[in-house]
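Here is one chain, start to finish.
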Amino acid sequence: MILLIDSGNSRLKVGWLNVPPNLTTSGTVTSAQAVDTLAAAAREPAAIAFDNLDPHALGDWLGTLAHPPTLALGVNVAGDKRGEGIRDALARHHCPVHWITARAQLLQLKNRYTQPTKLGADRLVSLLGVCSRLPANHPPFVLASFGTATTIDTVGPDNTFIGGLIFPGPALMRSSLARGTANLPLAEGTVTEFPTDTHQAIASGIAAAQAGAVVRQWLAACQHFGQPASLYVAGGGWPEVEHETRRLLAQTGSTMGVSPAPCHLDRPVLDGLALLAAQPDPQSL
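Its structure:
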């Protein structure tokens, strides 16, 4: 068993993969059929999430397993100290960890960041998790991930990441208003076009900002590639902005004669890690 680790700013997401021997001895795994086998069947779909501020949670969970993992493969964007804590927890169970870092190309996915190593590894691996599920001749796509930060990234038909946005996620927007102002509450309001109280105004402003950024990048991708782009969404903040995003996309798409429908992905980072873990020598990646 290979453990798959997505160490984010707020949560530690863990999945695992039992790699079929026939997929690890025949070269690089890239076909859609192999990916479906790995991600849908071999990777445990009910991944576990821990509070990333709890240094003992992962180790305690590992202690309950009848058969501990032999290797962990992961991405960590929560800082070196958090990464060291995860490494120590795994070491107590005799499990080495290999961290995936960003680079100019990761399997079939090419990275056009000006400094490729500066791209968040979670962003690169999540995009790999999307594009590896697609047929060879796929349209461009946009992946919007709503976590502590929201990222909206675009990949072309040739599996080249061409760039993306980073801005505060829904929860961070809400808490920053409460912390940074004297009179604004930590709002829990309904989203409406014309808010008439402060809670509504904040909730609607957050949803409008998130949805507007998604539509902006979807339109930019359509115009850049000269064809409609697919749209994928992920992350714990998606339910909060889903209605407004779908509404705005439908409104925008109707003027173009298309019907953009976001496809929700459960954990694209873990899907990307599952693909990497199935390679002949994942620790060399």
